[in-house]
Amino acid sequence: MADDSSPKARAIAALTELFLEKTEACSDFSVLESICMDAGHECMSVSLGRALEARDEELMRSRPEGYVAHDKRTRTLATEMGDVSFVQRRYRDRFGLDAYLLSDRYGIPYGARVSPGAAEFLVLAASQASYAKAADLLARHGSRVSERTVMAALRRAGDACEREDVAAAKSLYGDGVVPEAESRLNEICMEADGTWFSVQRPKPGEPRRFEVKAMCAYGGKEVRGGKVRRTRVFHHACVGAPDEFWSEGVAQMGAVFDLGGIETVHLGADGEPWCSDAGRYLPGARVAVQLDPYHVNRAILSCSRTPGLARRLIGVASDGDAASAAALLGAAASLGLANEGAAKRVAGYLLNNSELIGAEGPSLGTIESDNQHIYGARMDSVPCAWSVRGGSDMARILSRRASGREIPRVSRLESMPHRKRDARNGKVLAKLERGGAGRVVESVGEGYLPPHQVDTSRIEAGKAYALYRAMSNMDAGIWDPH
Questions:
Q1: Per-residue confidence (pLDDT) for residue 402, from 0 to 100
Q2: Would you give the DSSP letter of residue 376?
Q3: Closest CA relative to residue 25, chosen from 35, 10, 16, 17
Q4: What is the pLDDT of residue 293?
Q5: What is the 8-class DSSP label of residue 100?
Q6: What is the distance, to the nearest Å, from the Cα of residue 171 to the centroid of all Cα atoms in its chain?
Q7: What integer is the mean pLDDT of 340-349?
Q8: What whole-number distance in Å separates Cα of residue 349 and Cα of residue 356?
């Protein structure tokens, strides 16, 4: 038999009575559903605010030593159930710093007007639709926020993604720590390409477009449900220099494929030098580069005036004979079957990449579709333009969504503004300097030395050695008065 005395049972009974009252004045179920949803969310938001205040009372009774209650502050957060308002205590710790035990307990970011859950919803919605539509989706039964608030949530998520990517690259290439991987394969496929987007309000003389560098890596292809699909797909994208892009991408890829076990990488590229540069970041693997057939075919089609000629040239190039394809293209141009200027450019493209065209290896050619469906579908919608930073943030978020990777959450500590953090550190150091037996030493001798070291360059040799011996004994816990 159900326990009617439990909090959940009492809440259900109360909502039942509330919803029953709503049914009397409504005969349309869709309207009734919306009315009950709004009423339920209103009850939930008020209840959550009261529960947080009750928890703050408990934290007050078990507060750390040295914490003194200073005053109470009201805070309101936009959430998925509506605005949640609550009162929390502000404390002063032994260093005189402000502390909020309730916010610390639940990781509520500094200065946030949106709850972590609502922020995650806004990032997910904004990665699929415009900022205005994302705000409308949250407001359907939750809080109403502005488009700028949506953009701020996405920026914070993008910054968190970048910090995670940079940390992964530093750990791998700086500290030599290979990440733990989900799988170990001797051979993988990888593709890289760039896609361009419009710059928002470019200044005179500045570029009007920027490039998002994108890569994907996968274990191979298999037939599932009548379609050929990639296995264990990993995506990474950002706006940045090639070194930044590859080091971060390969380091994060190490969580999917064991970098120490990869012997062969089949890399599809478009002819740009940075696209073929993955080998520098996978020194233990043999990287076999092949030019993406999509780019070869598009180049030939751009200058051919007859479909039959284009098909023949594509066939010759696909067989790996780029030199013959270039020669045929030149002859076609002289006969008026191809645009002369374009044919000369394409012939040079084929000759410069002759070793990569038709190279042996598995079928690749999927990155163009990724660029269109993962990045272009959201970032190239009309009218749409981006700041370079905003474009990079969106690319990092979209690549994580496509990979099934979680977008890192912004911790309370990470959300603290740098100026506030510096001010707090300064107060702590000042307090320690005033209240300790000694003082905080900034520098000793020439440049910085630890406080227990001194500059002995101007001390006589015998005395310097004696001082060194005494200090060494002190470090070892040996007291020798002589």
A1: 95
A2: I
A3: 35
A4: 76
A5: -
A6: 16
A7: 83
A8: 11
